[in-house]
Design a protein that fits this description.
The protein is of the alpha/beta class. It contains five helices and five strands; from the N terminus they run βαβαβαβαβα. Helix 3 runs parallel beside helix 4. The two termini are 18 Å apart. The model has no long low-confidence stretch (mean pLDDT 91).
């Protein structure tokens, strides 16, 4: 099974398309999921180096999604993007295995730099 770069998870389809096009324009191999349940189904059949997920989603939020994923052995990095107050969710996010957090609207240059360096760091660990 080929490992893809990034799984994007967000229930806002327009935002999902925007981030997907942005990351693909930077050369990343990107797949999308329209929510946490869809992401879990996608992860049953695909392997990713990173997941970027929204926090506020119906059915399962981004922290719950990360917690569920981290119950299985995985070195996938998880990034949270949210419009919620990070100070209220950061402890739970870190405990769930989320390595980076961004507030919406995201600062694009910083976001891309973190994604790039995080994926490169992961490549170096596997080399």
């Amino acid at each position: 099974m080929k490992t893809k770069d990034i799984l994007l998870v967000d229930d806002d389809i327009i935002y999902l398309q925007f981030l997907s096009m942005l990351l693909e324009s930077q050369g990343f191999d990107v797949s999308t999921a329209s929510g946490g349940i869809n992401a879990l189904e996608t992860l049953k059949h695909n392997k990713f180096r990173m997941m970027i997920t929204d926090f506020n989603m119906p059915e399962i939020n981004g922290v719950e999604l990360a917690t569920t994923i981290k119950e299985q052995p995985s070195d996938m990095r998880i990034v949270l993007v949210t419009g919620a107050d990070l100070s209220k969710i950061s402890k739970a996010a870190v405990n769930a295995g989320i390595s980076e957090m961004f507030s919406k609207p995201i600062e694009l240059q910083r976001f891309l730099a973190v994604i790039r360096s995080s994926l490169l760091a992961g490549q170096n660990l596997c080399a």
